[in-house]
Amino acid sequence: MIHRIKIKQVATYSNKIEQTIDSNKINFLYGNNGTGKTTITRLIEEPSNPIFSNCNIDYDENGKCNTLVYNQDFVKINFNSETQLRGIYTFGEESEEKYKQINLLNEKKETINSNITKILEEIKIKKEEIDKLRNSSSDIFWKKYRKKYYEKFPELFKGNVGKKEMFFDKCLETEFIDEVLSEEKISDEYALLFKDNQQERKTIQGFNLDQTKEYISSPIFFKEIIENKDVKLSKLIKDLDNSSWVEQGISFLEKSHGLCPFCQNQLNNDFIKDIYKLYDREYQQDKIDFNERMSNLKNRINEIRLLIDENSDLLKDSELIIKVNTYINYIEKELDTKNRNLKYICSFPDSMSILDEFDAYIVNLNRTIEEDNNKIKNIAQSRVKLIEAAWQFIRHIGNDDISIYIENKFKLEKDMHNLQISYETMKKVKNELDIEIKELENSVTSITKTVNDINDILRKFNYTNFKLIENSDHLTYSIVRFDNTDASKTLSEGESSFISFLYFYNLVFGSRTRSGLHENHILVIDDPVTSMDSNTLFIISTLIRNLINLCLEDKRNIKQIFILSHNLYFFKEVSYGYNERSKKNISKNIAYFVVQKINGCSIIKSYENKNPIKNSYDLLWEKLRNKDYNDDSNLNVMRRILEQYLNTIGMGGPNNNNLDLINKFDDKDKIVVKSLLSYINDGSHSIMDGLYMAPDENANQNAFRIFKKIFVELGQESHYNMMMHEEDETIEEEKSNKFETLSPNNKNKKKIESKINKKEVIPV
After folding, report:
1. What is the C-alpha separation between 69 and 254, in angstroms, rounded?
2. Tens digits of residue pLDDT in 360-388
3. Looking at domain 2-89+447-606, which CATH architecture does it have?
4. Model confidence over 649-672: pLDDT tens digits?
5. Per-residue DSSP letters for 122-134?
6. Domain limits, the chain
7. Quick one: 240 exposed, middle or buried, by C-beta within 10 A (0-12, 13-18, 19+)?
């Protein structure tokens, strides 16, 4: 069913303001010729036509269905002398059993279609849930990872961070691996490969580990270097702890000519001999060995210090550097202590592992420098590898979030897969039903019944100048006179319009192919009463009202109807009773529109379920519906209504004094009754209006009461209630009363209604 029609920039419709029709089940559109009604019918019939590129038709959840459009295009295409009229396939009378079987199959098909619609809606919901899950997961990755790492390493994520979906998809595409580069390593390589003016670096010239360890292990550092103990003076020197002072004095003894270098007293020869014996060759050799070893070890220590100072920007393991400095400082301190006192035994740390660790660190650092130099030599390839490593890093740290996403997505996709299987299964069953229905239709359909039905209607309404015949090909019809001569070129405009509508009407209940008799229809009927007399117009109106009732009752696959006309009388006849005062199940399915042309542009105005076209009789009643007791003109309105109504039912006119009616009222009310009925005899320009009654608010209120009572006494209370809109339920009951009392040629109309409503004329 069509939900909304949008029209813009076509024919007489403006290219600035879009006109909208919010359609209902039954839609009445009134408009004069040239206002743009036919454009609406052509849009509904062929919305894909390029001329309607700025227009649009929105359908409800049931989607599109077959559209049958009756307009002048339909007449020109189907009723011309150049082509034969294509046959309409229907079920023959002898096919009732198979027809019932087809109906049962179609009911099953409708149930399956309903289930398919539900499944498709569920699939749509699952897809929306998957999209929602993806959006929420994309948001998480965008906020947790993209912002943080893109700001740090923009070159690594360039081209995949413009949109959150792109960033998330790239993370999903990246393979998860256990071992990835750390953020620190990525940062180091990023600084190396993406900084300006990349240059190769020299490796670090390390220290001689083995030699250093050898010097540290020298026994002399752990030996007490003392004087000759066999000399008597040695005990004294030890007690005085002045060995260095004595040793220093010996260097001056040779030049002092036997005198003490310090006190200048004469020394005897035995004392001098003992002095020289204190610092014998062993002592001197140990001292030389210590000084040499100490010097070499200090040189190694200085080399280590220099290495650290010169490569401070590369040596980033500060904890290790502190340990190394502490270690060599301690050794140097021990050496200085022993140098001051050769008897001191150095106490170095038991382990030299810190030197091994430092040497290994330098080796690894040099290896890294060499690797970095190779990366700089092949910078393009190195950058590609680093970008890949960066994505692997993101994939690794976001693995928990991705796992949650994949798990939830799997559940949803599994549900959707099961729904898809159900959909395919039902679709297969539906296709099997279609084949079975088509086979049954092919076995029982023919075009003969349609030609007989149309000829019956023509005959019953005295259209005896022409008829339809089935051609020998059993596929088409011809329009002939009763002497079987071709009548297609000699039909009057009214005859052509009438038979073309009968053809359309029967097409609603049939099909131009053997299959498709149960397709759902949207009917569009545009001005079907051109050049028709009042009797034919009423026949067409009644046929259309039958289509409306079938649509409202959801019968015969008629899902929606659009009726367009410029003929006021036809519009009144076809739309009567379908308004806001009708039963709720009717009024809620009705919509009225007026199409106008203002300043050359077509305008569509909606009136919802209120019929904008009213006759003069209804307008009189509309004034009374307000019940304004201060409006004295209501008396004249009542008189005019009674005049028209009583004349119609044969109780008015100058020869009818309505005494029987007047006598039904008591004396007090008779005055008001006479006043109201006097208008019938006196005429609208009579000076006797105030003769029987002086109007005021109370009198007017009393007049309303008497006015209603007149209809009650006439047995026409239901007509009063209907016209005053006081009882919704009486509208359908009063339909026949209105035809009888307000339309001309009442007897002929009743006759026509009787013919049209016969079962053999209108399929139900």
Report:
1. 144
2. 998 888 888 888 787 777 777 878 888 88
3. 3-Layer(aba) Sandwich (3.40)
4. 666 655 566 777 888 888 778 777
5. HHHHHHHHHHHHH
6. 2-89+447-606, 209-368, 616-733
7. exposed
